[in-house]
Each structure stands twice: as C-alpha cells, then as structure tokens.
Automatic annotation (TrEMBL), chain A:
Catalytic activity: 2 GTP = 3',3'-c-di-GMP + 2 diphosphate
EC number: 2.7.7.65
CC terms in the record's Gene Ontology section: plasma membrane
GO biological process: cell adhesion involved in single-species biofilm formation; negative regulation of bacterial-type flagellum-dependent cell motility
SMART domains (alphabetical): GGDEF
UniProt organism field: Pseudoalteromonas lipolytica
Pfam annotation, one family: GGDEF
Gene3D superfamilies: 3.30.70.270
Organism superkingdom: Bacteria
Record-level Gene Ontology MF annotations: diguanylate cyclase activity
CDD domains: GGDEF
Name by which UniProt lists this protein: diguanylate cyclase
TrEMBL record, chain B:
Protein's UniProt keywords contain Amino-acid biosynthesis: no
GO molecular function, one term: oxygen binding
UniProt binding sites for heme: H47, H71
Keywords assigned by UniProt, alphabetized: Heme, Iron, Metal-binding, Transport
Name of the protein: Globin
C-alpha cells in the first residue's frame, strides 16, 4: 500500500480537532498525521519547555511506542499556547494510531478540586474544634465531653472511670463584686490550673457557667477521689489579683460518681455526682464528696 | 471565615487563572524565560497558585525554609526578581486585581525575597 493510498484512507482524520498520527506498526514510519497533529507538533518544537528540540513524533515513538507504555503526557508551553496532551496508541492491523487528548482543563480541575477539598477539610476540622471547645477557657465543652465518653465506652471493653462534677465556690460573688471580666479570669485561671495538673488518663471539660467535669479513666476509684481532693488543695493555693488590687483565693466543691456502681450513662453519672455535689455545698463547700457516701 | 483577598478574588480557581496569565507573560520575557526552559509549567502553576493564594490570606502553603530550599539552585538574581515583580504587577492589573490589593500582595511577596533570590 502506498503512502498516497494511506493518506486517502486517513484523510477523514483531518476533520478531528484532536491530534492524530498513524504509523506503521513494525517500523514506526509515519503513514498519516492530521492537521491538528501538525499544529501541535509545531508548537511543541517552538515551546520553551522542549529541552532537547526533538520533534513530538520522535518523543512519541521513543516514549510511547518503543517503551510500550500505556500513555504519554506532554506539556507544551509556547507562551500563549499552553496545553497538556495525553497520547495513547492503538494497534489497528498493520498500523498504530496515536491520538492525543487535550487534558489541560482536566489537570486544572483536578488541581482545583484537590486544593479546594483540602481547604474544606481544614475548615471542617476548624468548625469541629469550634463546636467542641469552650471559647472562654479553651477546654472541651459539654458536647465534646459526651462525645468523648461515648467513644471511650465503645472503644474499651473493660472501661471504667470516675466522674467528678466540679463547681467553683462563690463564683456569683466574684462576678457581682468585681465584674464579669474578673469572673471570666477566674474561670480561665481555674481551667488552666486543671489542664496543667492532669495527664492523659483524665478528660476535663467545662459544662457551662462555673461548672466543670473531670473524668478519670481506668484508675482505681480511691485514687480518683484522692486526685480530686489533691486538685482542690492546689486550687486553694491560687491567688488572684482583683480589680481593687487585693488578693483573693478560690476553691471548689465536687461530687464524685463511679462508673458501674453509680451509673452507666454519663447523664446518670452526672446526675448522681450532682447529688454528691449538693451535699458538699450543704456541708460548707470546698470539699469533695463521693455519691456512695452522700 | 475571615475575609481576605483570597476570598475577595474567588479563591483558587480565579487565582489559578491569574497565575496562568502571569506565566504566559513570564515566558514572553527575555530576561526570565531562560529560567523556565526545562520546567514542568503545570506543576509550577500549581505551586505558584497555592503560594500566591497563601499570600492573599488563603491556606498556609509553604514554610520559608522550604521556599529557600526550592529556590537555592535556580540562580535567581535581583534583576530577575525585579522583572518578576513588574510582570506580576502587570498581570494583576490585566486580571482586574485592584492597585491597592496588588500592592498588598506584592508587599507580602517582598518579605519572601531573601528566600528566593541568590546571594
């Protein structure tokens, strides 16, 4: 078959916008190249990022046909002409038909999709943090506490914990005497003190107002009670400077409930710890009371 | 979400187009086009879009150390830098970024000069 005959056979390919070149399967000699391929090949030759000045055809033959790879991506940057083509080869009888798909838009959209996706994931994490963190004290909030409890309960087969419900003593008096800013300072100072005093076996959260919760996980009840007592003693050493430049101390009352004995759900445990807390307050505040003995 | 030039100008998709035009202009520059002879422009546009986005208040992208590492063997001198700044200003103007906003981004870019230009 002569080249002219082949050209006649393949001339219909000139109607296609995508670049197509037909080569002989054995020797990789050009049988036909459509107009679009010739245009792309010329841009490739002129392009600033063509390091070797070799032709597009040579590149296709060496990288795609002789290396027997599935596809070849070629970027062409000729100032105002920037396109990325993905060339693939198909053997049809004695010929190999190589066609190029313009994937410039696809690549751009893939990049934009990935970056936007990362952005959305980051925002989603930020939103999650905001929804689960107390804005004032920067410790977990009630929502986070319930989520954590549920996670711990389902994750550990032999889960055990104690729940200490902590209420700052005379907090209303702080607010009324020295203003809400001072009240906020009390809350922030206390939350920081607890965060600095506990380790990974504890989970501390603000439930609202001056009420906090400390969960101690998989530690013997008596140690947990002692730990909460110790926390009370160290809290009592904190001195705060009031707006009228006097020093003032703080303390808390706490009720403690034990997982299993005093309840299984967090609601139940908090409810019983609250009953113990009530007794602690009734008995003069600044003390820790177990629900069992309440 | 905090308001920023990144949001004002439509995020990654719009900034991507600005950066594409920026490199079209760069490749027309006789001073700079030699730097891009063997460069994968697609990858560069991706990096630059992320970098300029971060300067416009978008998500953080690259540390100063990484920036210095990426440019240390590229031989970019002060003349190249100034030409690049001029082309970026021109591109911003062509792409509808206001003069004040463009100045703001370029001022931020100038703080990165020592990590990009060879000494």
């Amino acid at each position: 078959m002569s080249l002219e005959q082949n050209n006649a056979d393949y001339s219909v390919l000139n109607y296609l916008q995508l670049p197509v070149v037909v080569l002989s399967a054995n020797e990789h000699k050009v049988v036909f190249q459509n107009n679009s391929f010739q245009l792309v090949a010329q841009h490739y030759l002129d392009a600033s990022n063509n390091p070797t000045n070799r032709s597009l055809l040579q590149l296709i033959i060496s990288k795609l046909l002789e290396n027997d790879t599935d596809k070849l991506e070629v970027e062409i940057n000729d100032a105002s002409y920037r396109h990325i083509f993905r060339f693939t080869a198909n053997v049809v009888g004695e010929h190999v038909i190589v066609e190029g798909e313009d994937i410039t838009e696809l690549k751009r959209n893939q990049f934009l999709f990935n970056r936007t996706n990362t952005l959305l994931e980051d925002y989603s994490k930020q939103m999650f943090e905001l929804a689960h963190t107390d804005q004032l004290t920067n410790v977990p909030n009630r929502r986070a506490l319930f989520a954590k409890f549920s996670q711990l309960q389902s994750k550990h087969e032999e889960f055990s914990c104690t729940v200490s419900l902590i209420d700052l003593d005379h907090f209303k008096r702080f607010n009324d005497s020295f203003g809400h800013d001072f009240g906020d300072q009390v809350l922030v100072t206390f939350a920081k003190h607890v965060k600095d005093s506990i380790d990974d076996t504890c989970y501390f959260a603000r439930l609202g107002g001056e009420e906090f919760c400390l969960i101690q996980i998989n530690i013997k009840d008596t140690f947990c009670f002692a730990n909460t007592e110790k926390l009370l003693q160290t809290t009592k050493t904190i001195k705060l400077m009031t707006p009228d430049n006097s020093n003032i101390g703080m303390s808390f009352s706490a009720g403690v409930a034990v997982y299993g004995k005093d309840g299984i759900s967090l609601d139940e445990l908090l409810n019983n710890a609250d009953k113990a807390l009530y007794i602690a307050k009734e008995n003069g505040r600044s003390r820790v009371v177990n629900f069992e003995g309440a | 979400m905090e308001s920023s030039l990144f949001i004002k100008y439509g995020g990654f998709s719009r900034i991507y187009k600005v950066i594409e035009k920026f490199y079209d202009n760069i490749l027309k520059s006789e001073t700079l086009n030699a730097h891009f002879k063997h460069t994968n422009m697609e990858r560069l546009i991706h990096h630059q879009t992320s970098f300029i986005s971060s300067l416009m208040g978008g998500p953080d992208y690259i540390s100063d150390e990484q920036l210095a590492q990426a440019h240390k063997n590229l031989g970019i001198n002060l003349k190249d830098w100034q030409e690049m700044i001029n082309i970026l200003s021109l591109t911003f103007s062509e792409q509808g970024i206001s003069e004040d906003d463009a100045k703001q981004v370029i001022a931020k870019l100038e703080t990165k000069r020592d990590f990009i230009v060879c000494h």
